[in-house]
Amino acid sequence: MKIYLAGSEFFGPILKKGGAKNCLFSFYAYFRYSRRKSALRSLDKYITENKGMDLFMDSGGYSAFSCGAEIDIDLYCKVIKQYEKKLIVYAQLDVIGDPEKTRENLEYMESKGLSPLPVFHYGSDFDILRELAQKYDYIALGGLVPYSKRKPRLKQHLDTCFAIIQDQCRVHGFGMTGMEILQRYPWYSVDSTGWLGGSKRAEYHSFERGKLKFKNTKVKDDASLQSIPLMQKEKRDGSWKLRSTDCVKQWLKVEKYITDLWTKRGIIYE
Known about the structure:
There is one protein chain. This protein is an alpha/beta fold and 270 residues long. It starts with a strand and ends in a 6-residue tail after the last helix. The chain contains 13 helices and ten strands. The relative contact order is 0.13. 47% of the residues lie in helices and 16% in strands. Helix 1 (12-18) packs across helix 13. Strands 1-8-7-6-5 form a five-stranded parallel beta sheet, with helices on one face. The chain has a three-stranded parallel beta sheet with strand order 2-3-4. A two-stranded antiparallel sheet has the order 9-10.
């Protein structure tokens, strides 16, 4: 199983130092605030820094939806074509809460000669999932993060999804890295921003005996952590970089543990 370290847009050197092999970045993250030329320069730098890694480009549709923004599908297609040979996978432009528009976007991107990863959202008709599982060899399940703390509902949904999919195709889970969820379902890949805790929340992560633990080294009610980004506050001693590098290493342990677990269960993906 692959764990793509998400939110990796500006951490190329740290990812490499930590030994990361799989990284996910967001198209929307680059083009949200920047002009097109500067965004492309930043994106090109990221891809160059992470040469040799398996790079997964997500459209950032969920982030755009959360901000009430729209993504230019033609620009997204253009950027994919520019970097397609350097990407291991790129997701379709999905539209949260609109399965018909999501389908239209998939068909539009395919009409441009692209082969994006199709996405099935929580709340969509399961007939759509049946069609995707039969037609494609790799699909993604999305819209799940809001239910990560509502485990009964999440598990009910995923139980149904995997009962439909069975062994017809490989499955990616957007934001699905809870240990219970990883051990319950045979994901081919998932992604997580959890490793960013080292830079965002001064966390140290440790993985032992199937458990991932988080320890915050700062005082919880320290107002300075809320007003000043850790990366700026700790710029001189670089301690956030050391924590982040170690976080990468701990998440790689999670990846190996889950891969070995499913191998023992007879699930082996090449």
